[in-house]
Each structure stands twice: as C-alpha cells, then as structure tokens.
Design brief:
The protein is mostly helical and 81 residues long. The chain starts with 13 loop residues before the first helix and ends in a 5-residue tail after the last helix. It has a single domain (6-71), classed as 434 Repressor (Amino-terminal Domain), CATH 1.10.260.40. It has helices at residues 14-23, 28-38, 44-52, 59-69, 73-76. The chain has 5 helices and no strands. Helices cover 56% and strands 0% of the residues.
C-alpha cells in the first residue's frame, strides 16, 4: 500500500510539533517521556521521525502529542478553531 505524501511528508503535524516543542524548551526525549507517562509507548526516535515527516501520526497519537504540548489537535493540524 502506497501512502500519499503531500509535499514529501507523511504527516502535516510534524513541523508544528517541532516548533511547539522548541517553544516549550523541551527536548525530543522530554516530550517522549511526557507522552509515556500519559500512557502511550513512544520513543525519542519516533518523535524525531514525526517532526521530520518520515513517520505517519495516528489519530490517537495526535491527542497525546497535543496534551503533552498543551495545545489542541486542531492546532497541530494547522486548523483554526
């Protein structure tokens, strides 16, 4: 199965995740730890691949990312509320 990659990326949220993480002064490891504490098994490498657009982000993962970063899922998806 081929995954459509708009602009060569597997997701639209990775750039926003990186920008938001950096604004919060969090490392990828710290973000992964926050998400792990919330109950989702994710690694620093997975965060890196999400941010570079090399990894698809599941819908349920968006909720964990948004909560850990203190933003909404719509914000990560570049949607206005």
């Amino acid at each position: 199965m081929k995954i459509y990659k708009p602009e060569g990326r597997c997701n639209v949220s990775g750039e926003v995740v990186r920008e938001t993480r950096e604004r919060a002064h969090l490392s990828q490891e710290q973000l992964a730890a926050r998400i792990q504490l919330a109950g989702l098994s994710i690694t620093q490498k997975a965060i890196s691949r999400i941010e570079t657009g090399d990894r698809v982000v599941a819908d349920y993962e968006l909720e964990y990312l948004a909560d850990a970063l203190g933003v909404t899922v719509n914000y990560l998806l570049k949607r206005t509320e």
